[in-house]
Amino acid sequence: MAIPRYNGRFGKAQAERLLWRAGFGPRQGEAERLAKLGLDGAVRSLTRPGPEKLVGPAPKDDKGRPLAPIDAYGHDHLWWLDRMVRTSRPLAERMTLVWHDWFATSNAGVGSQRLMLQQNGLLRRHALGSFKELLLEITVDPAMLLWLSGTENSRRSPNENYARELMELFTLGEGNGYTERDVREQARALTGWRYTWRRGAGATDFRFDRERHDPGQKVVFGRRGTFDWRDACNLCLQHPRHPRFVVEKLWSAFVPVPPDDATRAELERLYRADHRVRPVLEAVLAHPALYTGPRMVKPPVVYLAGLLRGLGRGIDTASWVWLGGMAGQRLFYPPDVAGWDDTRWLDTATFRGRWALANYALGPYSLSDRKGPTVPNDPEAIVKGALKVLGEPTIRPATRALLLRFARSSLAGAKTGWKAKAYPPLVANAVRQLLATSPDYQTS
Amino acid sequence: MRTATLLAGLVAAVALAGGQAQGAAPQRVQVTEDEWSLVLSRQRLRPGVALVEVFNIGQDAHDLVLRRNAKGAASVSVPKLDHFMRKTVRLKLVAGSYTLWCSLPRHRERGMVATLRVR
User: How many helices (H) does chain B have, and how many strands (E)?
Assistant: First the structure.
């Protein structure tokens, strides 16, 4: 059975949703251009992009200095946010974020921005490629080895940390087809990794050391052998429950409701062939559920990157670091090994962060009666202006009507005198803020 | 040896840099403090102005002293930082080898010491 494919109208609104779900939202005019490619062309432009071009002003800190992602706190976050804002390969960058959440490694446990950025490069290299290769490489990635105790796992003192998460979080799901004995045996298979500690430089020269590896017989998922770390990964990849885990987790990154059984089975079949992610993504991004299903809350960093893309603004302040934390998403610091909890994106605490993100993003575009263009004392024009500044996002008629009502009531007492001049820019600023924080803009 | 304060460092080869020179952005290095290590984001810098960010990721408080390994060289010190606090100092570094350490009792002996080369 073929996987269902969306065959409704693919216009600006659908292209916009695709760009938000599979990237970081449209730049000015980008949704219209994507819509002209049709569904297949649009999806392929995302899943098979050309070489990366970073478009827009180079990132800088508040003093106009270039970023130092390895050497300055928070600049790692700014560096990646800049990639999200300026990339010409939005899906590859979005998948890098998906993998960061999937293999959630935190610098809180690694203590090295250099190693975190090295892992980030690994995730980007495999963003649209093979899950098998990604799993094998991330298993022995230095940041991961530090984060999940891989270098503390030796034949004399096995550590189950990575073995447990390998199955629970990365490949099978909690309690899904493995036992506590499998965890212990997988830990033995994963033994052997170490590093050299150099004073001043920290952990370096990560390598496999046979002396630390347990070469004995192990029994994993009922299979017997002298397994090593590669086998530990491959055994998970060959586990009959693995394809379903990957497909459901990938799907949930793009669609907020589970796939129907037939779709899921077909996606599993696609994935099972060779563990490639691209064919699965192409099927998910063309599926009717993405275009006709419920709206999805944008993760904070996606919301911000999209705001900046829509505004045409580059990275020019380090405020995005603490504001990102306030909104619930500090890059390179997921809250725990399970990654970010999507149900927290719009709670009463993190919404305040989102409000502040919008406020800071719109700050440089703020209007007043003392500077900038004259704002007409016209509610319609003010709402139109707000939409234009944010890159003409599609909003529901009801939302537009609410913004208009707000503008009308705010300007009602400002027909004459100083208020006639002073109020319109203030109301325009407020309408922009309300639009950027509206349910229509917070979700896609 | 008595550790000089930040201001006293002005008189020596390690000096707090004044206003930003026009042109190239200053070099940067991050010094991560933990129990019991100091890790530098890079071990080598060029002579000139540098922003040194001290970041305490340990559980305990730590300070930092930086001194060029030369006779008569004064020290620059960064006051004690609590867990997850950080402080950036702007220094003018001349060529040479510098030792960095935490001066709290027994912290250096436990491993909180590192070398930075400037050339």
Answer: 0, 10
Using an 8 Å CB-CB cutoff, list chain A residues near B51: 72
Q: How many CA atoms lie within 13 A of A53 on its CB side?
A: 4
The answer to whether the CB of A113 falls within 8 A of the CB of A76 is: yes
CB B100 within 8 A of CB B117: no
Q: Taking the model in full, what pTM does it have?
A: 0.95
CB contact under 8 A, B39 and A71: no
Give the Cα separation of A437 and A355 in Å (integer).
6
Residue B19 has pLDDT above 70, yes or no: no
Q: Give the phi and the psi of residue A187 in degrees, each rounded to 5.
A: -60, -40
Per CB-CB distance under 8 Å, the chain B contacts of A200 are: 38-40, 43, 100, 113-116
Task: Give A201 to chain B, closest Cα distance, Å.
Answer: 5
Q: Which two tokens stand for residue A41?
A: 């062309």
- Beta strands B86-93 and B15-16 are antiparallel
Q: Which two tokens stand for residue A142?
A: 């230095």
Which residue out of A71, A195, A322 would a mutagenesis test of the B interface target, given it has the greatest number of B Cβ atoms within 10 Å? Answer: A71
Give the C-alpha separation, A265 to A243, whole Å. 9
Strand partners, B77: B65
In this structure, what token pair is assigned to residue B94? Answer: 């001349």
Which pLDDT score, from 0 to 100, does residue A371 have?
78
The DSSP secondary structure of A189-204, one letter per residue, reads: HT--EEEEEETBTEEE
- Distance CA(B70)–CA(A45), nearest Å, equals 60
Q: What is the pLDDT of residues A55-84, one digit of tens each?
A: 999 999 999 999 999 999 999 999 999 999
